[in-house]
Design brief:
This protein has two domains: about 35 residues; about 110 residues, 60s Ribosomal Protein L30, Chain: A, CATH 3.30.1330. It is about 55% helix and about 15% strand. It contains six helices and four strands, in the order αααβαβαβαβ. It has a four-stranded mixed β-sheet with strand order 1-4-2-3. The longest helix has 28 residues.
Protein backbone atom coordinates (compact mmCIF):
# COMPACT_ATOMS: atom_id res chain seq x y z
CA UNK A 1 0.00 0.00 0.00
CA UNK A 2 2.80 2.43 0.89
CA UNK A 3 4.58 1.45 -2.32
CA UNK A 4 1.45 2.37 -4.37
CA UNK A 5 1.22 5.79 -2.68
CA UNK A 6 4.90 6.51 -3.33
CA UNK A 7 4.56 5.46 -6.98
CA UNK A 8 1.46 7.65 -7.40
CA UNK A 9 3.29 10.63 -5.90
CA UNK A 10 6.27 10.11 -8.24
CA UNK A 11 3.93 9.81 -11.25
CA UNK A 12 2.19 13.06 -10.30
CA UNK A 13 5.54 14.85 -9.92
CA UNK A 14 6.73 13.52 -13.28
CA UNK A 15 3.56 14.79 -14.99
CA UNK A 16 3.87 18.17 -13.29
CA UNK A 17 7.54 18.45 -14.31
CA UNK A 18 6.67 17.54 -17.91
CA UNK A 19 3.97 20.20 -18.07
CA UNK A 20 6.22 22.81 -16.52
CA UNK A 21 9.14 22.23 -18.88
CA UNK A 22 6.81 22.21 -21.89
CA UNK A 23 5.40 25.57 -20.85
CA UNK A 24 8.87 26.98 -20.24
CA UNK A 25 10.05 25.74 -23.65
CA UNK A 26 7.06 27.33 -25.38
CA UNK A 27 7.61 30.61 -23.59
CA UNK A 28 11.28 30.65 -24.59
CA UNK A 29 10.53 29.97 -28.26
CA UNK A 30 7.28 31.92 -28.48
CA UNK A 31 5.43 28.80 -29.65
CA UNK A 32 2.72 29.11 -27.03
CA UNK A 33 1.82 32.63 -28.11
CA UNK A 34 1.72 31.71 -31.78
CA UNK A 35 -0.43 28.68 -31.16
CA UNK A 36 -3.03 30.61 -29.17
CA UNK A 37 -3.23 33.66 -31.44
CA UNK A 38 -5.88 33.54 -34.14
CA UNK A 39 -5.03 35.03 -37.51
CA UNK A 40 -8.69 35.80 -38.25
CA UNK A 41 -10.76 34.63 -41.18
CA UNK A 42 -9.07 33.54 -44.40
CA UNK A 43 -9.18 36.42 -46.92
CA UNK A 44 -11.84 35.87 -49.56
CA UNK A 45 -13.79 33.37 -47.44
CA UNK A 46 -17.41 33.45 -46.27
CA UNK A 47 -16.15 34.21 -42.77
CA UNK A 48 -14.16 37.18 -44.12
CA UNK A 49 -17.24 38.48 -45.93
CA UNK A 50 -19.41 38.21 -42.83
CA UNK A 51 -16.83 39.71 -40.45
CA UNK A 52 -15.59 42.58 -42.60
CA UNK A 53 -18.37 43.47 -45.01
CA UNK A 54 -21.71 41.89 -44.11
CA UNK A 55 -23.45 39.12 -45.99
CA UNK A 56 -27.11 40.19 -45.98
CA UNK A 57 -29.50 42.94 -46.85
CA UNK A 58 -33.05 43.30 -45.57
CA UNK A 59 -36.29 44.26 -47.28
CA UNK A 60 -39.61 45.80 -46.39
CA UNK A 61 -42.77 43.69 -46.38
CA UNK A 62 -43.77 42.49 -49.86
CA UNK A 63 -40.93 44.53 -51.41
CA UNK A 64 -37.96 43.55 -53.52
CA UNK A 65 -36.40 46.97 -54.06
CA UNK A 66 -33.14 47.65 -52.23
CA UNK A 67 -33.66 50.08 -49.36
CA UNK A 68 -31.32 53.07 -49.19
CA UNK A 69 -30.01 51.95 -45.79
CA UNK A 70 -29.11 48.53 -47.25
CA UNK A 71 -27.44 49.71 -50.45
CA UNK A 72 -24.17 50.44 -48.61
CA UNK A 73 -23.85 46.76 -47.64
CA UNK A 74 -24.04 45.77 -51.31
CA UNK A 75 -21.56 48.50 -52.27
CA UNK A 76 -19.11 47.11 -49.68
CA UNK A 77 -19.72 43.62 -51.06
CA UNK A 78 -18.97 44.88 -54.57
CA UNK A 79 -15.66 46.37 -53.40
CA UNK A 80 -14.85 43.15 -51.53
CA UNK A 81 -15.58 41.08 -54.65
CA UNK A 82 -13.27 43.38 -56.67
CA UNK A 83 -10.50 42.57 -54.17
CA UNK A 84 -11.06 38.82 -54.65
CA UNK A 85 -11.70 38.30 -58.38
CA UNK A 86 -11.47 34.51 -58.04
CA UNK A 87 -14.48 34.40 -55.69
CA UNK A 88 -17.93 33.51 -56.99
CA UNK A 89 -21.08 34.01 -54.95
CA UNK A 90 -24.66 32.90 -54.81
CA UNK A 91 -27.36 35.33 -53.74
CA UNK A 92 -30.11 33.65 -51.74
CA UNK A 93 -33.50 35.33 -51.66
CA UNK A 94 -35.71 34.78 -48.62
CA UNK A 95 -39.17 35.80 -47.42
CA UNK A 96 -41.08 35.69 -44.16
CA UNK A 97 -43.68 33.02 -43.44
CA UNK A 98 -46.70 35.00 -44.58
CA UNK A 99 -48.13 34.26 -48.01
CA UNK A 100 -48.19 31.16 -50.15
CA UNK A 101 -45.12 29.11 -50.93
CA UNK A 102 -45.30 30.13 -54.60
CA UNK A 103 -45.64 33.83 -53.80
CA UNK A 104 -42.68 33.72 -51.42
CA UNK A 105 -40.48 31.80 -53.86
CA UNK A 106 -41.16 34.46 -56.52
CA UNK A 107 -40.57 37.28 -53.99
CA UNK A 108 -37.30 35.68 -52.82
CA UNK A 109 -36.14 35.44 -56.45
CA UNK A 110 -36.92 39.11 -57.06
CA UNK A 111 -34.95 40.02 -53.92
CA UNK A 112 -31.93 37.94 -54.98
CA UNK A 113 -32.07 39.49 -58.46
CA UNK A 114 -32.30 43.02 -57.03
CA UNK A 115 -29.19 42.44 -54.91
CA UNK A 116 -27.42 40.90 -57.92
CA UNK A 117 -28.26 43.95 -60.03
CA UNK A 118 -26.60 46.27 -57.49
CA UNK A 119 -23.45 44.12 -57.43
CA UNK A 120 -23.28 44.04 -61.23
CA UNK A 121 -23.84 47.80 -61.40
CA UNK A 122 -20.94 48.13 -58.93
CA UNK A 123 -18.60 46.34 -61.33
CA UNK A 124 -18.89 42.66 -60.42
CA UNK A 125 -19.15 40.41 -63.47
CA UNK A 126 -22.57 38.82 -63.70
CA UNK A 127 -20.97 35.45 -64.46
CA UNK A 128 -19.57 35.40 -60.90
CA UNK A 129 -23.05 35.64 -59.35
CA UNK A 130 -25.82 33.06 -59.29
CA UNK A 131 -29.20 33.48 -57.62
CA UNK A 132 -31.62 31.15 -55.86
CA UNK A 133 -34.83 31.64 -53.93
CA UNK A 134 -35.70 29.74 -50.78
CA UNK A 135 -38.89 31.69 -50.20
CA UNK A 136 -40.05 31.04 -46.66
CA UNK A 137 -38.37 27.62 -46.41
CA UNK A 138 -35.19 28.71 -44.59
CA UNK A 139 -36.07 31.25 -41.91
CA UNK A 140 -33.26 33.00 -40.06
CA UNK A 141 -35.57 33.60 -37.10
CA UNK A 142 -38.45 31.45 -35.93
CA UNK A 143 -41.70 32.95 -34.75
CA UNK A 144 -44.64 34.95 -35.98
CA UNK A 145 -43.50 38.37 -34.76
CA UNK A 146 -42.59 41.58 -36.53
CA UNK A 147 -38.95 41.10 -35.45
CA UNK A 148 -38.76 37.54 -36.80
CA UNK A 149 -40.44 38.54 -40.06
CA UNK A 150 -38.01 41.46 -40.50
CA UNK A 151 -35.00 39.13 -40.10
CA UNK A 152 -36.44 36.69 -42.65
CA UNK A 153 -37.04 39.27 -45.42
CA UNK A 154 -33.49 39.19 -46.76
CA UNK A 155 -30.99 38.41 -49.47
CA UNK A 156 -27.84 36.62 -48.35
CA UNK A 157 -24.55 36.55 -50.24
CA UNK A 158 -22.82 33.16 -49.97
CA UNK A 159 -19.27 32.50 -51.17
CA UNK A 160 -19.17 29.44 -53.46
Amino acid sequence: MLNTKVMTAFAALALLAACQSSTADNAATGAGAAASTSAGPRPGSQEDLVANVGDRVFFDTDESSIRADQRTVLERQSAWLARYPQVTVQLEGHADERGTREYNLALGQRRANAARDVLVAGGTAGARISTISYGKDRPAALGSTDDAWAQNRRAVTVVR
